[in-house]
Design a protein that fits this description.
Thrombin, subunit H; globular; single chain
Length: 130
């Protein structure tokens, strides 16, 4: 069976989530690092590309950390919500209020009738930022 149209429920949920992020989210910068290798497989160049987006960064509760296997004593772990069509990858960095965070895990990409509504990542603060 080929899916041709988005369901009304998924479009409504996506619209609500986008509205929440637009109203209550904050401006963030995604930093994608690209490594280029030469013909012998040696690293020849590292470049960064940036793009802006709106997202919501929330610190995790002890229960959420335990559920995801991080333990309650791990610090600098948060969850990042962003729109369903935001291009993000594991190991990309996020810059929020001069703090750099690394995406370490895609937790969920909830779908309704096969259509993604939003993305949620686990991020960890980079040690060089405070």
């Amino acid at each position: 069976m080929v899916k041709t149209n988005s369901s009304k429920d998924s479009l409504l949920m996506r619209k609500h989530m986008n509205t929440i992020l637009d109203r209550f989210g904050q401006d963030m910068t995604r930093i994608a690092v690209t490594e280029t290798t030469d013909q012998l497989g040696r690293l020849s160049d590292v470049s960064e590309s940036t793009s802006s987006f709106r997202g919501d960064l929330q610190f995790m509760t002890k229960e959420e950390k335990n559920l995801l296997g991080y333990g309650h004593d791990v610090t600098g772990i948060a969850k990042l919500f962003c729109k369903h069509d935001q291009d993000m990858n594991i190991e990309d960095d996020i810059l929020v209020d001069s703090q750099r965070w690394e995406i370490i895990k895609l937790v969920e990409n909830p779908e309704m009738a096969g259509d993604p509504t939003f993305k949620m990542f686990v991020v960890q603060r980079r040690p060089e930022t405070t």
